[in-house]
Amino acid sequence: MGTGSALAGKEVPVVGSDVVRWIDLSVPSSSNIAAADAAAPPTADDRASCFVIGDPPTYLIWKIHKAQPQTLELLELTASKEFPRVGLRFTFTDALCPFAFICKNEISGASRFPYLLYVLTVSGVAYFLRIRNVSAYASLSIFPVNELLEVNVRGYIPNHTAAITAVTATVGGLLVGTSDGSVFCFQLGVVDPSAPGFVRELRDESGISRLWGLISRGKMVGTVQELVILELHDKKFVFVLHLDGTLRIWDLASGSRVFSYNMGIMTMEGATFVRLWVGPSYPNSSIIPLAILYRDTSDENSEMISLYSILYNFGDRIVFSMEPSAQNIPLEEGRCLDVKLTLDKIWILKDDELVSHAFSTNIDEVEALSYALQEEFVADQLFQSTEHLADEILRITHSIFSSSKDDILPFVSSVFLRRLLLPGVHHNATLYATLVEYSRHLGESELQTLTADGLKKEILSLIEHEVGSEKVSLLHCWKCFFTRYFHNWCKNNALYGLLVDSSSDAVGLIRKNSISLFRSLEDIERIVEGSSDEVSELTGLVDIFDDDLECEILIELLRCVASFSQQLGKTASSIFYESLLTTTVVSSEDIVCYIVKILETGYCMSSPVLQTSTSGDHIVVLEKELADHKSLRKLSVDMFLSLQGLHKKASAWGRILNVIECFLKFLVPQKVIQKYDTEMSSNINSSVIVHTTYQIAKVMFESAWDFLLFLSYLVDISGQVHLSHDDINKVQLELVPMLQDIIFEWLIIIFFTITPTAAAVTEDFNSKLSSLQIDNNMGKRLWNDKLGRCDFTLAFIFLLNVGSSSLDHSHFYSERFSNVQSFINRTRDFISWIICGQAGGSSTFLSRSIDLAFILFKHDQYGAAEQLLTIAEAHLLKEKTSQSIQDADGGWCIRHHLLGCCLLAEVQCGLHGTQKDKKVSDAIRCFFRSSSGNGASVALQSLSDDLGIPYLGFSGCTSIAEWKLQYYQWAMQLFERYSISEGACQFALAALEQVDEALHMKDEKYLNNSVNESVTTIKGRLWANVFIFALDLGRYYDAYCAIISNPDEESKCICLRRFINILYEQGAIKILCSNKLPLIGLVEKVEQELAWKAERSDISAKPNLYKLLYAFQLHRHNWRRAANYIYMYSARLRTEAALKDSVGSSLMLQERLNALSAAVNALHLVHPAYAWIDSLAEGSSVVNEHYPTADNDVEPQGWTSSIDIEKLENEFVLTSAEYMLSLVNVKWTFSGKHGALSDFADILVRNNFYDMAFTVLLKFFKGSGLKRELERVLSSIALKCCLDKVESTWVEEHSHLLTSAKHDMVVHGSPITVPTIPPTDRNSCWATLKLYLEKYKDFHGRLPIIVAETLLRADPKIELPLWLVQLFKEGQKERLWGMTGKESNPASLFQLFVTYDRYAEATSLLLECIDSFASMRPADIIRRKRPFAVWFPYTTIERLLYRLEELIRMGHMVDHCDKLKKVLHGSLQNHLKMLKVDSDDAISVS
């Protein structure tokens, strides 16, 4: 702020001006002039200006950045609308001069092209653009050629060496001034450039010169420095300032000069004329204000502005004259950026402040008024004004809270983060630039779409990353971030120019990436931020004091409080404010005590958290600690002396406290009773009002905080300053509560103005469809787009409910920007509405907070409404009396009722985990408290249905019990609607407690109650609800208890069925088989429900109800019923298996095997006399099928009336066989026909399931039938050996269902669960044949014969395997019995050889037997002498000899047959000789 200027106002940023999406338009050019041929002044500085067009006005703002001189940005603003989100950005092929002119189209095509734009490039090319509405360019990237005119003005200037030095424009004309002093007017857009009269020069022409054809410009003048066009009485005049100080005025229409004056005689020596500004003429006068900027040639930083007055007279001829006096305004500090002249003031924008001067003829009486720029506020909030402020945040926080890092650091981050996101501090382009410096890859458009919560998470993530990666303190990271952010803020918000609307006296500021307006100061701001001398000039404050002495006392008090505040001041207030808005372990009262203690004893520096968080080494920390203690000691001494002097002046503390009390009334928000008749829309003016409200509320809050701290300190040192006990009581019982109320009210106002709105809750498709609002409500969608933005705070919601005061419209400009004082007046109205509502309806702000919370809730700001009510409740508790907590009108109940609704709504917005659980718990508590408060019934039933909260929908409750019953049921339904079963269950139980008392029921008779229901019906419904909610929570035990507690039998049955269904769906049905639920009296019902559901459920569903019924009965030792249910499961599987594919069928068959095995095992636990189950009933969903029984050769029989273990085992065997076939995709079902089992065995053999085939045979065939089937199966196996002499493709290595014993079988074990695998090389068909022939030859002795005969029949030339031949020779010890023995003996094999022409093998076998008999040892001679004839097949031998002789006769293999015959004869002769000898020996012995 410049010296000698009093602070008169502040800058207020316009919300949304930092987020503009630019539509880039490239302007084509046909000019071939190179950019190096500069003919006009380039853009050396950032330049911007505003044109006010029309009535109501439209504000057109253009900007040219020195970093991008070829680009021009254009914004169209309307005061009655919000700040535009879209602007135009024109890019030219050449750099532009720092000039642009925008006007209303008055030439042609105004409906399509409302505006005209004139620009000039540095190469001397002028552009004339016809501008459409912004929305018309949404799909364009190149400006249409037919909508622009391009002219090279250099070609029209006679002196080609003269450079263009100044330029201006008006409707239909572009004027340029050159370095030789000439001024040219181009009728751009009006006359064709090739037509005569397109360009003309403003010059002096004498008559003789015309006759001679000579041009006479009169006296030579200097370079044209500035051109300004002013319209007077429908005439346009051009003011031309030349470099040599000559000021000329030209009549633009006639082209004649009407005034010339040399300004050099009125200014200081050695000054350079830089700029010229011409203001509007005074109404009802003939004076034109004029300002010229001078710059000292010896010192470029020394500038001065001189104000002049030009008199004009439009009589017979136009006469201009200069007033001799001038008003000089030296610019002592800062560089002049822009100047605007209004009717009575000059506004000077410097790079550090805005200054205004009133026009005055008496130069000495002129007082400069300064307006603070936003840089000062931002620097203060980001701790850039004083270096140690950020350190004090941590030090004070550490002194207040415990030394735990978990408590201190998050609170510090919260303080820093809140300051960063304050309106006016938060700036999108700045934040993006700062994040880029930290290498955060987040697009600018993506950053703009983030909500306030999203921004907080992003920034906190960055800080945490910096703390972890750089190994530095959290405070250091925040300080570095703030420093970078402030640097980028200043860079992205550089000052460009002023915005002035003379019709409304509105003054604004154009920055690089934002727009702002100025306002005047509130009275409290003049006191706090101005000088103490201004106190006596404030009439509103002086009126409340009795004499001048009290004013002097107040001035001294303000000085004491100011010096007191400067010690900790703003940092302490930030911590105090943060503690009020957040949940902390330390109350706000304790924080005041801690800070007073700090002022007395200093900081606590012992904690490692503090020491490691401060920069520098240990010595620096100690030096800082000593400096702080020294400063505090000085403060204590100064305060003691000041208070002593103050007490001496007032003579009594009572008078001083009265002055304080009077001043505190000045801090109370003004309550103006108004009647609002119109709604205030959200526009640029309203956004300025919101931010103005915050600025004023902040000053008020900090002032009240300073006095609270001062009075607390005063009480603490009461003994030193002789404060009496009565004075202390007055401070503690009157002044402090008064200050707490003031702080609370301003705190809420600040909360509204800085807290961003919550983003709109995303509606699902069903809700949109039900409300028929699918893309048909543009206003609602635009509103939802605003919600959640960091710059759209809660106060904007309240503006929708505020209208303009019908009593005073003098300062209300809905269609124009408001002036500096109007903003203050409208802000007072807004604050008054917040505090007391419309027409002062609320008696206290606590009751008013309920109305505000209703508004917030109606606009889906549930979190803000909750926080408002919580703050109000905390403030109410400070009264410390129960009477004040629960007021008689039920406000306390309404507050908790609304708070509960807010908490529930927040849960619906997507909360999860512990945060959701806490909100639900708090909501339950609020509703219970609300129902039990004084006057709850009347207050809550009186709430209308248009408040936005869930409507109660009942009334007329006559008793407390009936009220609670109805309210608890309403709360139950509310929680149920939000799918919060925990709360719904609690309120259902609470309602049950009120039923009997509410309805006065006895013996379940009806009374005339409001719902005309019996106690049984109501309790049944409530217990059913408890049951449902318990199920939703997964509390199955509580749900079952609700079932058995239900007195309504019908409801109980319905709940039981639902209970079973839910358990089944949730996979918790097994709980019925445990001991957790007392099923006494409900066992049969549970079983019936399970059985009913099992019959109607999908058999493949999990868990399986049949298995559950099986386990349910086993748990109760009812083995037969268990077997019955598991068999029903098997039967269901059998009927549905036909519909499945092979894979599904295999799985079903495996399940059937398990079920049959379980049924058999269960029946084995029953006494054999009762080991049966009932057959399936007729009409059952399970189809009855027939299975065979093992009854010798009898074919399968049908089911009888019962099923025993044997039948189950039979079914198990067949099912096992089906399962094995299904593994190789062979489907077979027993049909019950004759021969089906034989065919089944053949199928098993063909698929190499030999074990299973023999198991089926042994299970279902006996006697001759079994022998016949064994012959068939082994013959089939033998045939496979003949067909494949190498190996078969599928051979089982192990037996799965048979044992080696003759009658030992496994019929109820677990079936195989894996398919048969391909055999190894050692496994072959011969090995398989040998295995099963050796295993089952004991069942039928002729099996080797059958196998050998099959082989020989299939292949007469086959060589029988040795093991098969050995089977015929088994049982003959050393061949004692010749060629006979068992059924399969050598004689049988000999006969087979002879039958199938295997003469050599037959001869060899016979000789082997004879030789074996002949080689018997002498010891066995007795046994050898037994009858022998029967043991040799002599008939077959004869056949063999006959066949050999026949072959010899026929000539076939004569030699071979003859040889066999000779050998055979010789052997027989020897055998017969031996028999004769044996016979003789036998006779001799006898």
List keywords for this structure.
alpha+beta; eight-stranded mixed sheet
Quick structural gist:
With 1486 residues, the chain is an alpha+beta fold. The protein contains 49 helices and 32 strands. A hairpin with a 3-residue loop joins β24 and β25.
Notes on the protein architecture:
This protein is an alpha+beta fold and 1486 residues long. It has 49 helices and 32 strands. The protein has an eight-stranded mixed beta sheet with strand order 24-25-26-27-1-30-29-28. Strands 2-6-5-4-3 form a five-stranded mixed beta sheet, with no helix packed on it. Strands 19, 20, 21, 22 and 23 form a five-stranded antiparallel beta sheet that branches. A hairpin with a 2-residue loop joins strand 4 and strand 5. Helix 13 packs across helix 17, helix 17 packs antiparallel against helix 18 and helix 43 runs parallel beside helix 45. About 9% of the residues have low confidence.
| SS strand fraction | 5-15%
- What is the structural class? alpha+beta
- What is the radius of gyration computed over CA atoms, rounded to a whole number of angstroms? 55 Å
Give me the count of strands: 32
Please outline the major beta sheet: 8 strands, mixed
Number of helices: 49
Low confidence ranges:
206-218, 606-616, 764-776, 804-813, 1001-1010, 1177-1186, 1190-1200, 1285-1323, 1373-1377, 1426-1430
What helical percentage do the residues reach?
40-55%
Rounded average pLDDT: 79
Widest beta sheet: strand line-up: 24-25-26-27-1-30-29-28
The first-to-last residue Cα distance is: 161 Å
Shape: elongated
